[in-house]
Design a protein that fits this description.
By secondary structure, the protein is α/β, with parallel strands linked by helices. A hairpin with a 4-residue loop joins β5 and β6 (about 160-165). The protein is rod-shaped, with a radius of gyration of 56 Å. It starts with a helix and ends with a helix.
Amino acid sequence: MANHNLELITSLRAEEQSVSMHAFLRDILQHWHLFLIGLTMSAVVTAVFLRYATPKYLIESSLLIRDDSRGSNFGDAAALENLGLSVTSSSIDNEIEILKCKSLAENVVDALALHVSYFAEGRVKTTELYDKSPFRIVFLGTEFPGNTLAKYQVVFLKNNEFELLSNKQTVFGKFSDTISIDNRRAVLSKTQHVISEDDKYYLVVENKENSIRKLTASLSVSTANKFASVINLSINETIPEKGEAILSTLISHYISNSIDDKNRVADKTLTFIGQNLALVSSELHKIEGSIEQFRKTNMLLDIEAETQQLIQQASSTSDQYSQFAIKLKIVETIAKYIIDNPTGIIPSSLIQQEANFKELASKYNDLILLRSKNLVTMNKGHPAILAIENQVTGLRADILSALNMQQKELGISLAAFRRSGQGYQDAISKVPPKQRIYLDYTRQQQIKQELYLFLLKKQIETSISRSSTIPNAKVIDPPKADSNPVTPNRQLVFLVSACFGLGIPMAGLHLSKILSDKIPDKNSLAQYCKAPVIAEISYQKGAHSRFLQPDGKSLISEQFRTLRANLLFASGLAGCKTILITSGNAGEGKSFVAANLAQSFAMISEKVLLIELDLRKPTLANYLHVESRGVTDYLLNRSDSDILIQKSGQRQCFDVITSGYPPPNPAELLSTTKFEKLILTLKEKYDHIVIDTPPVGLVTDAHTVRPFVDLTLYVVRQNVTGRQQMHDLNKLFTDNRLSNIHVLYNGFQQASRYYQYYENAEKKGSFFKWKHNFKLTQ
């Protein structure tokens, strides 16, 4: 049982929602012109907005970053690796931060002069010109003064002159001449673009820091996905060429800075090698000159045979001694270089045997480069700079300690070789002194020559590495603007416009329905009214000024026939049928309903009488074009009852008794015995009596006539009758203050399908009848 009740409640609620939605859709169709107006206005506003809105275009580019952790490597690095040259890699996260940094954005702003903008103001729209400006300004300084936006109107004068207008000052000058703007020298020159006479030209200059801030805020840098080493760059700009230039310049400076950072180490190494190579070359040249002079003086051509074996052994020891001497010389030179140049780059490639020293030197060089880069944007007292300097100091001490330890080891080795060589020297002492001096010269020449060749080899390798420097990134897609603007989105704007065009009328209808206290439709009538609705009369323009025709097939004719049939069924078969017609307020169509209802009864060949009892505001005499004598004349003993009755003058004629002239006491007249006798007499003569009374909600006349009435027809008009009147009607119905109350819904503006079809058929029949008659006349 509970489930059955639940299903019943659910079905009733669904039915109520369906009816409510159906009624709402009917309201929308009924007021279709409002939606047409709303859509038209929204379309016009949208078209104007799209016509004058400044579009923004999306400019995109992509870079491939060298990142070994993600498996991205450039093919051109293999050639350097085959030569034994190292290729440094980078991290994609670090490169993203570098692309976002302000120093790089500052380079772009300086290169493109983004802190200076050019605009042309037309009649409706102001447009940025960028590279299409007919003039160009160049400030002879590093930065425009001030932190606020400065706007100047450029007025072109005769004789190649111009005038700059602003709130602060007015500047006159000639193109290509130096002028002073806010204490800053500048040159304003013309370009090849044509000046439009209809436009006003403006020059807008802002602080460079603001331009950098705007650029970094508008630039989007992101990775394609977490597995790829591809960076996507994008920016939104009103001018596609400007956005492409910004991204192209940004990428160019980024790659250039990357190459410069890598070349800085190579440049320091080449400088160090060049200085020492010149010194060794000078020493080698001096020794070779001494040998040449010694040979010329002593005429030495060859070494004697008996000293060959001794010389070979001494030479082997000398070779080993030379190698260690070279190592010691390099270590001493590097140690001296570190002490003399505390901020210099260490040439770590000179000592290849010591892997620990090379690792320490690489870390030391990285910290020196990091300190140099940060000093561009930070001062020396910054905590980050101090932290780097502390690390550099610690690494420098470790490197010097390692070099000192290596010097000691090399010193011990040289001492051992020296002792061995001393033994050979003792043996060679038997050799003539000239030969011994010659051997000393030869040994010094060999040491200097090997050192010279070593430095020359490193110089060539470093030069090859510098000339083949590979950047950290490679351009995959160059900057390119999309052909369609991203804002405004035409489809989205039209969609929002259509929503507003439909939503505003819909909201207006809904609000008017909520705020209105009138009866808008039959569903509301059924909701607020307890009395039965007997029929409905549709609204037709001009219908109140004409009567029903006996053979008429119009919508109102059929509805009055339906009303007549329902009244006959509701009032029974016996005796005279007296029908009282009233309403809650004036203007709801009582007289119209009464006259046409009487005409409808007359169409079935019955005797019908229409009595107007609205003694305060009579209108029936004018409506039916009859004389104004009526009920008041009879009740005031001015005429007989037979004289009161007039013919309506219609094809199906019915009798009419008008109200007469307005009396001072209408309620008292209707309460007299004479009026009662009049009604009883008329009920014996007629089959149907239709009584038109004043509104029951305003006066009590309808209550006075109640004893003589068989049925009360309460007229409710769409969008005229208020909800409060429904409350009064329900009280009349519940208390039975009027006889057999039925409601007539008048002024209904939505006809049923049957009546529409019936009316269209009548129109179609009339058309074919006219066409047939037209053919007969030819």
